[in-house]
């Protein structure tokens, strides 16, 4: 019975081992026999038949790196009844497995080891799992250490708060940013550390993430640090209440104070004047836009504000006479005086010597006018600049919102238009904008605004007028003259834009551009083998007294590898009067380079013979006004003859300007005048056209053709030729791309018909079919308005232009005009 019981238990044990994949073995050390179970053989990858039970055969399976430790353990067993060991084997299929063995020892009565038995279990998967688990634990520990380092060292603040705002955790960086230690904030509500005006916004952000747990929200906030200084923070907030390890709202605060301050500094530089620290024109436009938007939406009846443009009269002269440094000091003092006077009203430096003011909270036109008068009075007291006491006057232009306009650009332009009118009316005064402000002032404003960008838009052109040796008609030189091809106003005369360029200081850039163009053209002519003439270029006093003037001239000529001898520099008497010592020095330096100096408009200013002696002038130019009147005015004739005689005696070359007919030419030839220029030879022409003239080497006076029949006789429709000019009013209705209300200008109608008319004006208008004009024509004690567009222009005298106009009308207007035309015929007793 006992034997059966033992066998049954053994079978159960074997089955349990098989189920658990545990093998067993026995080793008889006395009889040197080994026995392995079937599962033990399976673990080793063999069958019971393949194993013969020797110890050495067992060792063949053991991994070479583990043989020594296994052999040592089995040959020197512990003096214990049981022990275990781990080792690796290499199975017959080459697989490396890790085994765990539990060993039991049997000893005889003398204590000698006689028998070993044990169990074997393949723990390869277990060891791999433990290894991976260990690696994961290491990784987790590494991440935890890294997170701790990042949190400890990060300049960002990490905060965990409860839904009611209580701070549960906050990182150490909070002390660096705010001056508060983490322990001083934990347990308190985070709202306590925000500015009162920002708490509501923070609460809204919390409410948002509580309602939208999967979304993050960002915002910017301002806090006060421990010292009371403002700190700007960027916040990022997310809901982590469902995360077991966090269970709170996570906030990341980042200190953006430096970035905000840098942005403010950049914005300040962009919107403020460096010299006076006042806002600049960029800020002005922004300010007006804000006011227009705010007041345009307001229901308050008193929504008006005034924009005043103030300009220092004669500042250019002060700047030229005293230098830019003292000019800057005057600007600073003017700014300080205005700032004190205006108190909290807006003041900006709009441009060089122009300031802009916005008057708010004033009740109507009378108060605006009172302020303007007070500003005039403000400048009754002189300014102390260095050793000088300067009496300064100002001119002002004023536009009103919303009476004049509700658009910022228009308000600024209207104030500038009023300012221009104020200057034209005598300065030291103010003008409110009015729609009757004339076309010429409007044109000046447009030209002033467009002038600065005209070079980069490639709108300037250099024209050339030949200068002729009167006896032989040889071309000896050419005068370079600048023209502006304005996109709206057509070819603009230098008489219109040069004063603006001088006033704004743009004349320096313009002069440099022109000299480069002249050098470029001259080099092209020389490359073509054209005659090596001289070219004269006009320079103003502003250019002449520019720092390093002579060096700049030489550098530009050197850019084109030209000999400076080709250049003639034309200056006026005003240059010589301003700073005689510097003028003499620079003229000598220019002549040392080979550049000749011509005195332009001689006789029109404070002409003095001392100039010719002291300044070593090479060429004299008689002004065209004398040539024009040489047969009409004895004084002009005497002056012309005297200047020619003087030039011959002093051996100074002389050029007569404005030769327009053969009588004038014959007169000058009789007096042995050396050179001349004028429309009789050629009007100023573009470069390519001048090249054709230069190729001929001579320029023959243009023969005046017999007058043709009046052009109106060839027209399809009858024109009334008026016995004298009929005075009418003209305004501009439409200019492409512009939205201005322009006043009227007087014109003289020369002839008129049912389809068009011819009129004269001192305003140069563009011949542009998109330009719509409106005329108010007096007839039979009433005025008739008619619209038209210019189709041709002709300059008939200095700054006097004739225009041909085609009328624009519908059927009813045409009928009405026909009636007016008939009345005009009747009124003038003209019958055809």
Explain what you see:
- The chain has 832 residues and is α+β, with helices and mostly antiparallel strands.
- It folds into five domains: 17-122, PAS domain (Beta-Lactamase, 2-Layer Sandwich), CATH 3.30.450; 154-261, Beta-Lactamase (2-Layer Sandwich), CATH 3.30.450; 276-434, Alpha-Beta Plaits (2-Layer Sandwich), CATH 3.30.70; 460-695, Alpha-Beta Barrel (TIM Barrel), CATH 3.20.20; 715-827, Beta Barrel (Thrombin, subunit H).
- The protein has 27 helices and 33 strands.
- A hairpin with a 2-residue loop joins strand 14 (383-385) and strand 15.
- Mean pLDDT is 83; it is low at 5-10 and 705-714.
Properties at a glance:
alpha+beta, Beta-Lactamase, Alpha-Beta Plaits, 5 domains, eight-stranded mixed β-barrel, 33 strands, EAL domain-containing protein, Biofilm_reg_signaling, Rev_trsase/Diguanyl_cyclase
Task: Please name the fourth-level CATH homologous superfamily of the largest domain.
Answer: EAL domain
Total number of strands: 33
Helix content: 25-40%
In whole angstroms, the N-to-C terminal distance is 163 Å
What is the CATH topology descriptor of the largest domain? TIM Barrel
Give the tally of structural domains: 5
Number of helical runs? 27
Overall mean pLDDT stands at 83
Task: Give a short account of the largest sheet.
Answer: 8 strands, mixed, barrel
Specify the overall morphology.
Answer: elongated
Global structural class = alpha+beta
Cα-atom radius of gyration: 50 Å
InterPro entries: Biofilm_reg_signaling (IPR052155), EAL_dom (IPR001633), EAL_sf (IPR035919), GGDEF_dom (IPR000160), Nucleotide_cyclase (IPR029787), PAC (IPR001610), PAS (IPR000014), PAS-assoc_C (IPR000700)
Pfam family, one: EAL
Protein name: EAL domain-containing protein
Organism: Sinanaerobacter chloroacetimidivorans
């Amino acid at each position: 019975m006992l034997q059966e019981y033992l066998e049954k238990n053994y079978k159960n044990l074997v089955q349990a081992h098989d189920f658990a994949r545990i093998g067993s073995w026995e080793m008889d050390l006395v009889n040197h026999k080994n026995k392995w179970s079937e599962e033990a053989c399976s673990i080793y990858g063999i069958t019971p038949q393949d194993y013969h039970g020797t110890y050495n055969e067992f060792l063949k399976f053991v991994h070479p790196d583990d043989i020594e430790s296994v052999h040592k353990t089995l040959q020197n067993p512990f003096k214990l009844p049981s022990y275990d060991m781990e080792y690796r084997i290499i199975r017959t299929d080459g697989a490396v497995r890790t085994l765990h063995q539990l060993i039991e020892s049997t000893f005889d009565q003398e204590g000698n080891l006689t028998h070993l038995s044990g169990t074997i279990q393949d723990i390869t998967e277990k060891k791999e799992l433990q290894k991976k688990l260990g690696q994961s634990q290491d990784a987790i520990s590494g991440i935890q250490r890294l997170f701790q380092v990042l949190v400890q060292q990060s300049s960002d603040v990490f905060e965990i708060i409860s839904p009611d705002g209580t701070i549960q955790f906050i990182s150490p960086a909070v002390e660096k940013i705010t001056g508060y230690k983490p322990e001083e904030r934990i347990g308190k509500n985070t709202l306590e550390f925000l500015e009162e005006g920002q708490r509501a916004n923070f609460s809204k952000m919390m409410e948002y993430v509580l309602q939208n747990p999967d979304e993050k929200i960002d915002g910017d906030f301002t806090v006060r640090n421990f010292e009371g200084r403002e700190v700007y923070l960027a916040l990022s907030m997310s809901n982590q209440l469902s995360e077991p390890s966090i269970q709170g709202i996570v906030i990341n605060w980042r200190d953006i104070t430096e970035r905000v301050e840098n942005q403010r500094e950049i914005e300040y530089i962009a919107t403020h004047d460096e010299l006076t620290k006042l806002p600049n024109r960029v800020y002005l436009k922004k300010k007006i836009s804000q006011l227009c938007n705010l007041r345009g939406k307001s229901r308050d009846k008193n929504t008006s504000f005034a924009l005043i443009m103030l300009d220092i009269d004669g500042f250019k002269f002060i700047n030229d006479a005293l230098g830019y440094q003292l000019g800057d000091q005057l600007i600073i003092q003017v700014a300080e005086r205005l700032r004190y006077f205006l108190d909290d009203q807006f003041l900006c430096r709009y441009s060089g010597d122009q300031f802009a003011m916005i008057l708010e909270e004033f009740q109507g036109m009378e108060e605006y006018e009172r302020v303007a008068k007070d500003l005039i009075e403000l400048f009754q007291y002189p300014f102390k600049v260095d050793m000088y006491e300067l009496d300064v006057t100002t001119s002002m232009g004023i536009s009103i919102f919303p009476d004049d306009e509700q658009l910022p650009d228009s308000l600024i332009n209207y104030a500038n238009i009023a300012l221009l009118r104020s200057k034209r009316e005598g300065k030291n005064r103010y003008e409110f904008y009015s729609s009757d402000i004339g076309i010429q002032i409007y044109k000046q404003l447009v030209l002033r605004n467009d002038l600065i960008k005209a070079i980069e838009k490639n709108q300037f052109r250099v024209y050339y007028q030949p200068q002729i040796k009167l006896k032989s008609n040889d071309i000896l030189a050419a005068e370079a003259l600048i023209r502006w091809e304005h996109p709206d106003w057509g070819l603009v005369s230098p008489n219109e834009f040069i004063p603006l360029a001088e006033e704004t200081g743009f004349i320096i850039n313009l002069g440099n551009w022109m000299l480069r163009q002249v050098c470029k053209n001259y080099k092209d002519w020389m490359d073509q083998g054209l005659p090596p003439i001289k070219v004269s270029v006009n320079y103003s006093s502003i250019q002449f007294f520019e720092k390093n003037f002579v060096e700049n001239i030489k550098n530009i000529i050197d850019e084109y590898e030209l000999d400076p001898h080709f250049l003639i520099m034309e200056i006026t008497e005003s240059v010589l009067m301003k700073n005689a010592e510097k003028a003499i020095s620079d003229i000598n330096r220019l002549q040392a380079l080979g550049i000749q100096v011509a005195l332009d408009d001689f006789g029109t200013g404070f002409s003095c013979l001392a100039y010719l002696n002291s300044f070593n002038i090479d060429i004299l130019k008689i002004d065209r006004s004398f040539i024009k009147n040489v047969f009409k005015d004895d004084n002009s004739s005497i002056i012309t003859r005297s200047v020619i005689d003087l030039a011959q005696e002093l051996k100074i070359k002389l050029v007569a300007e404005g030769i327009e007919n053969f009588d004038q030419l014959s007169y000058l030839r009789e007096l042995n005048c050396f050179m001349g220029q004028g429309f009789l030879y050629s009007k100023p022409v573009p470069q390519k056209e001048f090249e054709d003239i230069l190729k001929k080497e001579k320029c023959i006076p243009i023969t005046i053709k017999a007058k043709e029949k009046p052009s109106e006789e060839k027209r399809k429709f009858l024109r009334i030729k008026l016995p004298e000019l009929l005075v009418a009013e003209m305004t501009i209705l439409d200019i492409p791309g512009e939205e201005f209300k322009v006043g009227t200008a007087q014109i003289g109608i020369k002839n008129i018909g049912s389809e068009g008319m011819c009129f004269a004006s001192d305003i140069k208008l563009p011949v542009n079919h998109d330009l719509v004009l409106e005329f108010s024509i007096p007839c039979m004690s009433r005025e008739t308005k008619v619209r038209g567009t210019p189709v041709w222009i002709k300059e008939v005298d200095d700054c006097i232009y004739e225009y041909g106009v085609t009328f624009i009308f519908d059927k009813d207007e045409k009928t009405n005009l026909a009636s007016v035309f008939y009345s005009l015929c009747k009124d003038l007793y003209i019958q055809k």
